[in-house]
Input
Amino acid sequence: MTLPDNEMRLSDAETGAPMVVIGLDDRAGLPDLQMRLRELGFMEGEAVCVLRRGQPGGEPLAVRIGVSTFALRRIEAACVRVAARPVK
Amino acid sequence: MTAIPIESRRLAPPMLALVGNPNCGKTALFNLLTGSHQKVANYAGVTVERKEGWLRTPAGTRLAVLDLPGTYSLAPNSPDEQVTCDVLAGRLPGERRPDLVLAVVDATQLARQLRLVLGLKRLGLPLVVVLNMADLARARGVDIDVEALAHALGVPVVSTVAVRGGGADALFGLLDAALPPVPPAESAGSMVDDHRQVKHILATLGLDRLPAHAFTDRADRVLLHPLAGPLLLFALLFLIFQAVFAWAEAPMGWIEAATALLGDAVGRILPDGLLRSLLTDGLIAGLGGVLVFLPQIVILFFFILLLEESGYLPRAAFLLDRLMGGVGLSGRAFIPLLSSFACAIPGIMATRTIQNPRDRWVTIMIAPLMTCSARLPVYALLIGAFIPARRVAGGLELQGLVLFALYLAGIVSAVAVAWLLKRLGSKGRQHTLLMELPDYHWPSLRNLAIGLWQRVLIFLRRVGGIILALTVLLWFLASFPAAPADFAGAPIEYSFAGRLGHFLLPLFEPIGFNWQIAVALVPGMAAREVAVSALGTVYALSATADDTAQALVPLIVAGWSLPTALSLLAWYVFAPQCLSTLATVRRETGGWSAPLLMAGYLFALAYAASFVTYRIALACCT
Output
């Protein structure tokens, strides 16, 4: 699925770049993932940021959502669509 | 007729249920409320840990408190969360519905946690929100107006500091008052509606300005650093194993001395005969031999609890995720596997948080390769007896080093087995992680003390229960039938145990075990540490003179060669003989194939490892 120009997947977001959640996608092979992400606070309009990536291979991702931090595999982060957040 | 029906809840004290997100300080609050009045068991039919306690309010009301498993929502995703939802709905058989729900909320994570509160309001149960860690929120510049929050939520709110004594005074006051009314029924809102409502409440009360925890960010910059992080983790684990040996030395000496004194005293008081033999050879030699490892178990658990309390454990899982993924495991497997260092049984139960069935199966299969604390007595005995206590390269304790190597051997084999299972299994599967990295905080001494005390109780109960029973049984088997007067060898060789040992000897001789070890392995199947008490009893009865209360160590040093000791150490890295683990695997996988496969592959690995170790050591020693 292609995304609009201003959107990207959270898994592709630059480390440390402030982003905002645009929406969540379902993904084959990972049932209920969208719901579980929402329960943890991945809601439309929420501020999100990839804090760091594990090594080697850039996995897993430590993701800040609100004031919480979660560890996600790349495939999980790919379910979250994000856009750049204007810095105040 | 107007008889009032007698409900069971009128007879039992009113029940409070603590509900909240994982890491919200729920257990700390539970400890603060109930102190040492706790009972840890399982829910009927499922292997989810059930923690109940009781408290007496200042006015003297007795209340039961149930600590429900942490959950992110009331839509269950795992067996743990299912229990919470079923108890709250009054659906779990054998479990009464709580009379009052205490929603524990971490004041620094309000946005996520208040959504759960909105869900709890719809349950039709009296509800009180317990605002935990309000002091931490204040330190980060956000003062929470409890009254205003209660007004906005429509339920009573009390503020507590769960890690401090007296931090629950406001809550106690509220518990002495009448039950708050059931919140008015609301139509079920969607997750998005609840989210909007929470955002609105937080914005109105000015609570949406809380900054992220600065210390956690700074600490993670080092602790999750791609290079420094794994190095620190490895150093930490290494330090723990050094400490297990170095710190435990003195208290172990005291327990040994006390055991010897008691054995001597009983030996002097009682006349020579069966009763004296049962007490000194059976009970004191057997149980004392296991009890002596209590200090080491306490030290190991102290560190595990410290890592858990401080919030470091999920970071370790983060650092090891790639490694785990590489051998086909979920990063979530780290916590069950770490628990298996204490005991494989809670470890195997903890695999229930792994959603993928195949990931879970592989994790269960390798859990017994993590060196459980029941193996520690065996390792400690053999290392203490055969590895010289001296310092090598850079002041490291050689004994601690060998212990570390044994733990490492278990881990390496687990990685190898997991990798092999991955190669044999299906490919291209999705692995999930999705794990919270909670803010760091100082572990509270009370929580550490209560956690350690529970572990000590579990160990002592084993010593007093199954280990005691098996020790007496083994003493019986090793004492009867009594040898005739003209029997040449030690009387034990004539007994049931002696005959069993000699019968098993052909199987174990190629790996260097003598008949005494073969005998000790049999009761060791019920509980691994029994092997030590069994050796204590077998050797105490093998001794012919009056030195029955003598410690086990000099006896095995005199009786075994170094290759035999090393071979037994290698055997215990795999130690296939633990019936309770196999029973748990059968229950958790719902069939016999997994436990049989597990027993088979562990036995093969143990035999092969012991054989190779024995032959190499034999070649080197001669």
